[in-house]
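Chapter review: from sequence to fold.
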Amino acid sequence: MQIDLPTAMRLAGAESLALALARERAGEAQELAREAEYGFLPTLRPRVSFFRHEGLTQDTGGEFLDVEKQNTFLGAGADLTLDFGGALFRALAARRLAEASSAGAEATRDGVALDVIEGYVRLLVA
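The token string follows.
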């Protein structure tokens, strides 16, 4: 069967596990960068707190009393994060990571292409 270089490149690109993995990593890094851009928005989080006290406590007159008390809170609230510097840094770091992952995917693609070309040349020589 005859094979030419474009066919060999197409076959290697379609079946290269390393190339598919590099593309997925780049896609994941892009999504993390998009997520980091929303770091300035307030978040809604559930809150649960529980406090219990057993033993001695002092009243305003100075006497010690043996008490037992507890307090429970369950609810939700909006938290507004004002860490602008941290949010900016996280967004910048995520963008840089996405750029690096894209470059890594390109390098993997080039490495696969080089392997295919070397194999093709060895076939031609043989």
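Two observations follow directly from the output. The chain has a mean pLDDT of 80. The chain is about 60% helix and 25% strand.
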